[in-house]
Amino acid sequence: MKFLVIALSTIPPPLYKSHLSSPRLLVPMSTDFLRSPTNILKAIFFNPPKTPKIQPLAMAACIHTSRAENSRTSSLSCDPNGSQIDDRVCNYIKYCRPNFSDLVSCVPNSENHSKSIRIPEDLGSFDPVQNQDDLWVRMKNEARSDILQEPILSNFYVNSILAHDSLESALANHLSVKLSNSGTLPSGTLFDLFLGVIAEDKEIIRAVKDDLRAVKERDPACISYVHCFLNFKGFLACQAHRVAHSLWSNGRKILALLIQNRVSEVFAVDIHPGADIGRGILLDHATGVVIGETAVIGNNVSILHNVTLGGTGKASGDRHPKLGDGVLIGAGTCVLGNVRIGDGAKIGAGSVVLKEVPARTTAVGNPARLVGGKENPIRLDKMPSLTMDHTSHISEWSDYVI
Amino acid sequence: MKFLVIALSTIPPPLYKSHLSSPRLLVPMSTDFLRSPTNILKAIFFNPPKTPKIQPLAMAACIHTSRAENSRTSSLSCDPNGSQIDDRVCNYIKYCRPNFSDLVSCVPNSENHSKSIRIPEDLGSFDPVQNQDDLWVRMKNEARSDILQEPILSNFYVNSILAHDSLESALANHLSVKLSNSGTLPSGTLFDLFLGVIAEDKEIIRAVKDDLRAVKERDPACISYVHCFLNFKGFLACQAHRVAHSLWSNGRKILALLIQNRVSEVFAVDIHPGADIGRGILLDHATGVVIGETAVIGNNVSILHNVTLGGTGKASGDRHPKLGDGVLIGAGTCVLGNVRIGDGAKIGAGSVVLKEVPARTTAVGNPARLVGGKENPIRLDKMPSLTMDHTSHISEWSDYVI
Amino acid sequence: MKFLVIALSTIPPPLYKSHLSSPRLLVPMSTDFLRSPTNILKAIFFNPPKTPKIQPLAMAACIHTSRAENSRTSSLSCDPNGSQIDDRVCNYIKYCRPNFSDLVSCVPNSENHSKSIRIPEDLGSFDPVQNQDDLWVRMKNEARSDILQEPILSNFYVNSILAHDSLESALANHLSVKLSNSGTLPSGTLFDLFLGVIAEDKEIIRAVKDDLRAVKERDPACISYVHCFLNFKGFLACQAHRVAHSLWSNGRKILALLIQNRVSEVFAVDIHPGADIGRGILLDHATGVVIGETAVIGNNVSILHNVTLGGTGKASGDRHPKLGDGVLIGAGTCVLGNVRIGDGAKIGAGSVVLKEVPARTTAVGNPARLVGGKENPIRLDKMPSLTMDHTSHISEWSDYVI
């Protein structure tokens, strides 16, 4: 039977996290760490795993070895495609250029190498049906499927998803890699911070899962949970905000504001950590979104890019919009001041809203008007944030003359 | 008495800058440099400080040592909270994971280590009252206060603020770290460039200080000068523009345009280096701001995010807006062409302005109209850029019918 | 005669690419690689060039040496300014601080050093007239001219332009440096990917050249092709999209979506890889542009920043706008739904368009109206995307009352 032997220098360190006894001795997941093969070796041998549950996949040489030598007892090893997948990854290795890390490898990559580590057999083995309702299990399955389609991204998927034992850890890692700044904010520091906050504030991970489902459900361009998790900057900005909001609420304002800044730089989404945001949120495209300190956003809200929930005046205090549940706000819209947008209301793209919008009505234009008129506005019978219907109001919009 | 002994490998190099005799021998402040403990040691011993005024704070072990061993004669050592602060930082160290730099330390961290360096006693000692009017002194005090609240950010604050002997140096460093691009634009090169320009063109630092005061005064979300300095990308984009504009005015167009590009990528703020911008500027949130080559902006102007001061046509020449003093422009507004916006004028959010707006009037809408009418517009009696009042005009805005 | 001797550690590795026999042995162009002088030496001596055509320019010491010692036979060596240029670069070296890479150089920089490499004599020698119509030759000439103006950027220009033997290679490199993420997406991997796609899909490089000409022709702020190539994030985002679209069309959706995400983070431009974009495109300023999956854009189109070509509803399928040839769309405009914008149509800044716009007409406002009226709209006689005239319609726009 074939196995993959990978050069130790290519092993992503997060993988070993779960095998270390003390959480304080975790190997840092920062990219700096990855640059030193010595550090990686140290990390491995410091507290070697006795019964490793997962094994790393990385760009590596493909050799034959005896399975008996290091047999595994995995409940997931029933996958009949196991060896086929190994072959595919092997083929991929032949035509892919090695990474930099391979070039500096200090570990000879031979059949005699006793520290050879095999890739997980369950790379392509999907989890049993009984776990299918678990979002994290689905995401790992999606990640395995993506690797089969794009072996070139194996390292990326292992580091970002498969090396983690929980959605919490994967999220803390992904955010810390995105928001770190070499030289000022090391990703290791951010990872510890994020993981600590997410572990403590259980509301966050509930909201994260609802957000993942919201994006997958409402955005036709979202092809999988893992696609949203890895690639949607609106999703990531929202989760970073949840951490910052938790810090802010616990009096750690300096840190919260620093996270706000990094999110604004990296994702071009500027959410004040004081803003109170519900669950099941879709920030679609997200570039240019600005949400002020005293804004409140209900559950199941969809907000397009370039939307401002802004204040007015230089006085502090309660000065930003309050959005009910199920609200949809189109691209490029400004809602300014401490005004209420009622449950299930819809605001068209490019609108400027300075007054209250009643529940289940549609406001459009600059300045915004209620479709159907102020006195007797047309009532929506579906939740606009869920239908994502931005344009059906135009048949009611008498000014539209093209 | 307790002192902190820090591993030399964690010392941020900028600290030693002021002790080196020749400015050409400064250790580079680039992040690359920080990755090599050898370089840091070299920098320290090349020209060791005789009577160090400040000492680095970094993540470190906490040990007891005799004060007499290495006594300091600081005018700021009267702070009665000194030892209390040390304790706090020590406590922090116990629960904080070390950085990568600690792991690669080549200096044993023990009581016998003769090169032990103590943290500054004046970490929490605020400067005497007579200096309180100096903005830079206030910023350093704010930085010390922030470290006490968030010891996890000690390195960040030391590198960004406390290690510098002037606002000029701190600004050049912070901008260079933000705008550098590993592999193409080293932060060391940018630092030298920025510092050189700021040192030569004295108008820049005057404007920087006015901008800091403007943000602190007008933005209720700004909690301190140092918060603005470290976190407000609109502020940083504006200061990078000031450097680029100085280069542009001195014929160094290639460099100026490169800075424009990096600012556009990193902060999503695109200001042509030819634009002439006054002092006391607030670019709030700043994402999506675009300011063209021949635009002129007066003093004490406030501009929200997604504002365009754009040209028209493909002809070169004077083709962009001219803003007077005290103008306020709301989010998402386009002002296009070589039109004048008079002193103290206000333009509402989401407006499109293609014609002159008289002084102290309010223009709103798409296309923009003058509040009160073209013939007899209502005159503002307060400077809108200072009040930041975006919405009071709506009571005069007859079209607004919600 | 004078020559420049450069420290080997400062040689950008891409330079040697063309001298290596096997494409699989290319030295990676990632920034990681550049950090190791050993790797660079390895790369050089692995397969030393016999008759080097170009030689690197980098920050270096300036010494006298005999030309006969290592004579060159270049068809371009007739440049009479050769030695003058060397002097200028030498002078520059005296006042420029060395890079980090110089500090870690393991190669002594002396006259006796047998591996001395001279800078190319043709640094300032412009190519003969017969090649002037070749865009890539012009770009290299522009790069040489820029280096003379700003020697501090020598490394940047060599790495980005002069070290490459084709526009394809330079583009793949520049995009990979911009879009890489240390720790997750190595620039070497991206470079291989981009170069492979561009080499295979010949339409891409044709479109790239048309885009370069479009930007240079239509944007008065663009001073040269190389200025556009290096600095215009709209141009770069568009080219990254062309690669992503090619991958998407070949079923490599995972990779295509990952590139979309990185472009959205790095350039704040979010183009779905499914979008079909013609040639001769200008994305001016580009921040906040969002283009949906089923959007189609014709040739010679100009789109300003913050423009949305968006969908509506959560149903998948054909749901985004279709733009004809020669369309101009002003800043901050939303076009939503599967509507057609006819050839040569113009849409004013800040407009919201939900219906078809006939060819050669102008639509402005929120909601958009046709200038001249729906029944008999005024016909444009010039292509608006080429004139870039955003504002002449206002004389026809009766609502504009300021």
Automatic annotation (TrEMBL), chains A, B, C:
Keyword annotations: Acyltransferase, Amino-acid biosynthesis, Transferase
Keyword Acyltransferase: yes
Its EC number(s): 2.3.1.30
GO cellular component, one term: cytoplasm
Entry similarity comment: Belongs to the transferase hexapeptide repeat family.
NCBIfam families reported in the protein's UniProt record: cysE (TIGR01172), EPS_EpsC (NF041874)
Protein name: serine O-acetyltransferase
